[in-house]
Amino acid sequence: MRPVAAAARHDGGVTDVQTDPDLILDFHAVNLVRDGKTLVGPVDWQVEIDERWVIIGPNGAGKTSLLRMAAALEHPSSGTAFVVGERLGRTDLRELTTRIGMVSSALAARIPGDELVSDLVISAGYSVLGRWREAYDEMDRAQAADVLESMGAEHLADRTFGTLSEGERKRVLIARGLMTDPELLLLDEPAAGLDLGGREELVDRLGVLASDPDAPALVLITHHVEEIPAGFTNIMMLAEGQVTAQGPLEQTLTAENLTATFRQEIALTVDDGRYFARRARRAGGHRRLG
Questions:
Q1: How many Å apart are CA 253 and CA 212, to the nearest integer?
Q2: Residue 139 above 90 pLDDT?
Q3: How far apart, in whole angstroms, are the C-alpha atoms of residue 285 and residue 114?
Q4: pLDDT at 218 (0 to 100)
Q5: Buried-exposed string 219-238: b where 16+ CB fall within 10 A, e elsewhere
Q6: Model's pTM, two decimal places?
Q7: Residue 173 in contact with residue 108, Cβ under 8 Å?
Q8: Each residue of 50-64: b (16+ CB within 10 Å) or e?
Q9: Cα 107 to Cα 176: distance, rounded to the nearest angstrom
Q10: How far apart are CA 183 and CA 199, in angstroms?
Q11: Which residues 6+ apart lie within 8 Å of 207 measured at CB?
């Protein structure tokens, strides 16, 4: 049974909302509104320490907006959001930077092409992007070597970021996200732009990471069920900022829920633990729902 997510404590008539210590993320009635438009919400979402979540949905569904709140990069417009035990709006966000790993295309675009891979990974521990005057010790280098090895990228340590293939870049960025031994690792479409071989290599590596009991809680955004690694436990589906389904992966990832989320009839198959989806073929052509 999932633990009670939040409780109210009354001290002198003042209510202080608390979160369960086993929850890495604890969102209650969370909305994110910009310029009068609701980007995502309302969302109730709890992520436990040992869970691995997939967030899936079409373009514009609100997936990245939700992930930015999970990364403490955005505050909710309303509702209550706890991230790694700290309530957004009530804590110094600088204290959270080493407790959350974030991997996104926006981060990749900011990395100088001549940055050494080893320095790029190590600098995560200093909450900076790019080496300046920091003196890295052997402990730093050993940790960087370990996380690069975990992603099959140890041989890239002395390369510059600009010389890497797209698949190599994605694995190096995930290693950087792991550098601080975070409690939560957020992955925003890590397989986007990869060819078939690169995607399969990355999915396999993420499956190994998901199966590691010492790995952080994981949240992965994707558009494609084929990119869901083995070992992931839960899923949330979003459409137009609304949650269409969420829960344990095996029970929740269904053709019916995909059809409701993508608003067209979707067929789903499972082969050796991997999911595959396509639009269902019907006599008389295809019909878009909604």
A1: 23
A2: no
A3: 52
A4: 98
A5: bbbbbebebbbebbbbbbbb
A6: 0.88
A7: yes
A8: ebbbbbbbeeebbbb
A9: 11
A10: 25
A11: 229, 230, 231
